[in-house]
Amino acid sequence: MTVGSLARRYGVRLVLQTKQTDTVDLSGGRIETWSDGTPRPGLLQIQTVSDVSAGGAERRTRSVKVYLEGVVSIGIGDRIKHGTIIYEVRSIRNPDERPGSDRLAYTIAEAEEIHG
């Protein structure tokens, strides 16, 4: 089976988000807006789960590997949304054995859950 057929059969619906704007408000805080792409199937594989302490509170965070069909236009710093969970992309890899846009090509993104 191809990655695409596995994602359609066993995968989850993912929304790829790209940064629309990145500005600074009058008090120096960052304002970011994100645009949602079309939902697409993908395979989501949890890599690690860890507890992170930030601002005096512990939060569980997950690192995931996401398999997407085809060559996908996504970059480092973009986001992948699965339901209410948002992951920030840390690395992208297009496998060397099938780099073209044929039906067996796929993209691998490694991402980390963000809270905010």
Describe this structure in words.
This protein starts with a helix and ends with a strand. Strands 1-3-4-7-6-5 form a six-stranded antiparallel β-barrel. β3 and β4 form a beta hairpin. With 116 residues, it is mainly β. The model has no long low-confidence stretch (mean pLDDT 82). It has one helix at 3-10; strands at residues 12-24, 30-36, 40-54, 57-69, 79-82, 85-93, 106-114. The protein is 7% helix and 60% strand. It has one helix and seven strands; from the N terminus they run αβββββββ.
Write the layout of secondary structure elements.
Elements: H1 3-10, E1 12-24, E2 30-36, E3 40-54, E4 57-69, E5 79-82, E6 85-93, E7 106-114
Antiparallel strand pairs: 1-2, 1-3, 1-5, 3-4, 4-7, 5-6, 6-7
How is this structure best summarized?
The protein is mainly beta. The protein contains one helix and seven strands, in the order H-E-E-E-E-E-E-E.
